[in-house]
Amino acid sequence: MKFNKISHLLLLFVSIIFFACGNQNSHKNFKLQPGDLLFQDLDGSSLSDAIEDVTAEEKPLSFSHVGIAVLDDNNDLSVLEAIEDSVQYTSLYGFLTRSLNTDRMPKVRVARLNKKHQTRIVKAISYGRQLIGYPYDPTYLMSDSSYYCSELIYEMFKHSGDGSDIFKLNPMTFKDANTGEFNPIWVKHYKDIGIEIPEGKLGCNPNGMSESKEIHWVFDYSK
Questions:
Q1: What average pLDDT does the segment 31-49 reach?
Q2: What is the DSSP string of 198-214?
Q3: Torsion sign, CA atoms 36, 38, 39, 45
Q4: Rounded CA gap, 154 and 66, in Å?
Q5: Residues 76 and 89 sit within 8 Å (Cβ to Cβ)
Q6: Residue 108: other Cβ atoms inside 10 A
Q7: Is 180 left (phi over 0), alpha (psi -120 to 50) or beta?
Q8: Could you say which of 55, 129, 214, 216 is the most buried, measured as most Cβ atoms within 10 Å of its Cβ?
Q9: Domain assignments of the chain as residue spans, ordered by start
């Protein structure tokens, strides 16, 4: 049984490399680089589903999470993200294999900042490194002491240049688009943490961030 599990993981890893290489050939030899944003369609979480439910538009992938490619303390290409309980490094392999489609490929698309913003990446990553270990923000309110995934990316680039925003904040909604009522998952979530649903408060989310005109798509791991 243990051998089969290891064999399965090795096969999955080889498959990712094979398909990624194939995609690279069709994407002008794509190579992930520091500063690239990895938008992810997460599975297995009621909150992830709720995020997609209130922020998604009709498109092949709906994003409930985002991280940024960086070089970690060992100079390995990793993903800096706010997930689970803190801001942290995650191995690229761990990030890509977290959520797979029916073809066992990562449900991840990669976006890159437009050329005019490339000079801000070094400062953005430097700022993000300072936030490693800060707690995850379950309130989804913009704050100085805790961070959710897209808030981390927003703050990193906000502190990377002249103070201008690459990504915009918009009024948040937690209501079902069809019924106009609060999604029951959000009702329970905010009841559990003891605060009112921050309907209309300024914030950001992966789907909204993915629509920014200041980035462009460069690779799709799901194909």
A1: 83
A2: -TT-EE--HHHHHT-TT
A3: negative
A4: 11
A5: no
A6: 27
A7: left
A8: 55
A9: 32-220
CATH class of 32-220: alpha beta
Residue carrying structure tokens 């051998």: 3
All residues at 6 or more sequence positions from 6 whose CB lies less than 8 Å from its CB, including other chains: none
Tokens 């994407």 -> residue: 27
User: Is residue 8 predicted with pLDDT exceeding 60?
Assistant: no
For residue 140, which of 199, 53, 69 has the smallest C-alpha distance? 199
Can you give the pLDDT at residue 143? 83
How far is it, in rounded angstroms, from Cα 41 to Cα 74? 28
Query: Both tokens of residue 223?
Result: 């194909």
Place of tokens 């009841």: 191
Predicted TM-score (pTM) of the model is 0.83
Mean pLDDT, to the nearest integer, of 183-192? Answer: 95
Is the per-residue pLDDT at 16 higher than 90? no
